[in-house]
Amino acid sequence: MDDLIRALREKIARYSSADQEKILKALDWAKSLHAEQTRASGEPYFIHPLEVALILADMRLDADTVAAGLLHDVLEDTVGTSAQIVEVFGEGVESLVDGVTKISDLKTGNKTMQEAETIRKMFFAMTKDIRVILIKLADKLHNMRTLKHLKEERQREIAQECLDIFAPLAERLGMGWLKCELEDLCLKVLNRDAYDQIKAIVSQRRDDRKAFLMRVKADIEAKARSGGLRVAIQMRAKHFYSIYQKMRKRNKSAQELYDLSGIRILCDERDDCYTILGIVHQLWKPIDGRFKDYVAMPKANGYQSLHTTVMSYQGRMLEIQIRTKEMHRVAEHGVASHWLYKKGSSNEVVKPADLSIINRLKSWKDMRFTSGEFLEEIKREILKDSIVVFTPKGDSVELPSGATAIDFAFHVHSDVGLHCMGAKANGSIIPLDAELENTQVMEVLTSPSAHPHINWLRSVKTAKARSKIRQWLLQNDQALAIDRYIVAKKRPAQEKTLESQVAEPKPKPIVGDEERIISEVHDRRLDSSQSAARLGISAGGDKSLMIRIAGCCHPAPGDPIVGYVSRGRGIIVHRRSCRNIAKIPDFRERMIEVDWETMASSVVRRFKVTARRAADLFSEIEGAVRKYKGHLVEGRLQDAGPGRLTGYFTMELENKDDLKKIIKNIQGIPSIIAIVPI
Asked: Parallel, antiparallel, or unpaired for β 547-549 and 571-575?
């Protein structure tokens, strides 16, 4: 620990005397508060906040942030209080510490919900001060580096959360080095076999790769010098997770991949980037369709670079990045690059409004999400890849990948979305539910008589569009309740039962929300003015019945479903094939039509395999899944005795009917002995 403290003192030597004093005071106080605590490894707990502070100091963040890194677990794990932090370190440090402190007093026994609410709190704290998330990312990085001391199941839970949320978040903030390290650490936990295989192959080819890249480097430098250009050339090895992604995308083993490394060329001026690109293409032929210009059109996180792939010596493909030194600083450090050449002053901070991700989060402030829904929307919209399309006036609009014209319309204005009847992309009519492509020029066609439809919910990708469509459907009598991505629908008025046509009894007094629903569905004398709004029903469970998933049959997105209006528990959703339906005496009288708000883009299934030991077994299984457009989410192979392996895999399918085909395909792998769906 003394070595770590000494290292921190050295790193903060460039700060002002007052800032150094603040950081060292935080160090002493945190050390005393954590004095009796230990980590799972048996080490003193204070090593963790100390390592977090070292990471933040390496990023050259300001003194308040480094101090908050030292104190980030004080409120959660010690007797230290917010008032004490304010008194000694100021409100700025206290606000940062509070932003990363877990919500421990949430009144729920559900740990997942508690974690989701903590992440929600942290994201909204980030909209006020971006340093909150930088502390959390440093905290997550050190935890991932020391994950081996936890139980295997907990390791996998933490690694999956990191891969789903924190690694993509680092990328969205432009912090390339951090994203790469987190992804590699996650791969090491979630798929150790693939990690070890890639590591071995990269190590085996190191000498050959170095000789090849040195030859490439010498040729580029010579050509640049003859053109009067000064360049710095970096030989870069691709990180393991990116190689793993290529294996999955191309359905190849690591041995079959040759582009395990690349070249990065750094120059002084923006215009030099294009001159160097011309030099590279003179030396080697470019591969068609593999050029990307992020200099003219930067990514949403500020990343700028030219990317090209060429066919180089001996027919080997080579990926080359070209950027200025300033662009490289931003590419590696992203939002944190603001502090790299500062003096550590906490007065100079990044304005949240300057960041695309922050502006998109702010637009969610007035939307009502449960914690679970918020987390899913974050993964689906904020942390996924994005595209940029243009309005007819040339304004750029960032949308999540897979977004449709409906999403674009609601982004322009809610009224445009509510009345859109068609769309044009680059002057051509396209379907409203067609996925948009990068750089398209979009135009929305509207009509006063056009209105949202329930089916729109199945194609939109943005939270704003989904929220506005839900709201309109509920307010205009198109649905009775929308919750948990399930829509409880009204029956058309013309569908009268024979009994109601013969005799219509007088209405009974209505008591409770569930009786109102039954009255609305079955009493055909109610007119359209007695709508869902009159019943006090709105989106997301506010003043409405909750929609619950039946515990007996566990319907999953895409399954045929039906609803039952229970007494006191809201609408219970069953599979239509559920055997328990027949045991509910009044099911027919209390049944209500329900449907999935969004048909799942994928169906998740798990399976277990027993196999003979084979070096490329994992790749063969992944190839069998990909043959039917499936996606292997995670997998683990473990020793099961002499010459045997047991594996557990999770996959996503576009169509659940493909499960049998994939199982049969896996059974055809020579080394597979048995496969069992879980």
From this structure: parallel
Given the residues 21, 58, 76, 657, select the one marked as catalytic.
76
CA–CA gap between residue 87 and residue 96 (Å, rounded):
15
Q: How far is CA 503 from CA 494, 523, 551, in A?
A: 16, 12, 38
The DSSP annotation for 86-127 comes to HHHH-HHHHHHHHHHS-----S-S-HHHHHHHHHHHHHHHHT
Q: Return the number of other C-beta atoms located less than 10 Å from residue 91's C-beta.
A: 11
Residue 465 burial (C-beta neighbours within 10 Å; 0-12, 13-18, 19+) = buried
Of 121-130, 152-161, 301-310, 355-364, where does mean pLDDT reach its minimum? Answer: 355-364
Query: How far is it, in rounded angstroms, from Cα 587 to Cα 574?
Result: 11
Residue 623 confidence (pLDDT):
80
Q: Is 221 noted as a catalytic residue in this protein?
A: no
- DSSP SS3 for 331: helix
**Average pLDDT over every residue of 423-446:** 87
Query: What does residue 108 show for φ and ψ, rounded to 5 degrees?
Result: -155, 145
Q: Which is catalytic among the residues 77, 161, 398, 443? A: 77
pLDDT recorded at residue 521: 41
Greater model confidence, 607 or 23: 23
Q: How far is Cα 34 from Cα 401, in angstroms, rounded to an integer?
A: 44
For the record, the structure tokens of 58 come out as 């390496």
Alpha-carbon gap, residue 183 to 371, rounded angstroms = 25
SS3 annotation, 255-285: HHCCCCEEEEEEECCHHHHHHHHHHHHHHCE
Share the mean pLDDT of the chain. Answer: 78
Active site residue 76: yes
**Sign of the C-alpha dihedral computed for residues 447, 452, 456 and 460 taken in this order:** positive
> The whole model's pTM is what?
0.65
Spatial contact of 519 and 537, defined as CB atoms under 8 Å apart: no
Query: Max Cα separation, the chain?
Result: 97
Q: At 561, is the pLDDT very low, low, confident or very high (cuts 50, 70, 90)?
A: confident
**366 CB-near residues (< 8 Å, 6+ apart):** none
Short-list 483, 674, 656, 411, CA closest to 557: 656
d(CA 551, CA 570): 14
pLDDT tens, position by position, 457-506? 878 888 888 888 888 887 776 555 555 556 666 555 444 433 333 333 33
Rounded to whole angstroms, the Cα distance separating 621 from 413 reads: 46
Strands in 644-653's sheet, in edge-to-edge order, are: 631-639, 644-653, 603-612, 672-677
Confidence of residue 355 (pLDDT cuts 50, 70, 90): low
Contacts of residue 391, Cβ cutoff 8 Å, sequence gap at least 6: 397, 412, 441, 442
pLDDT, tens only, 505-549:
333 333 444 444 444 343 322 232 232 222 222 223 333 346 778
Residue 594 is encoded by which pair of tokens? Answer: 């329900």
For residue 426, how far is the Cα from the chain centroid? Answer: 30
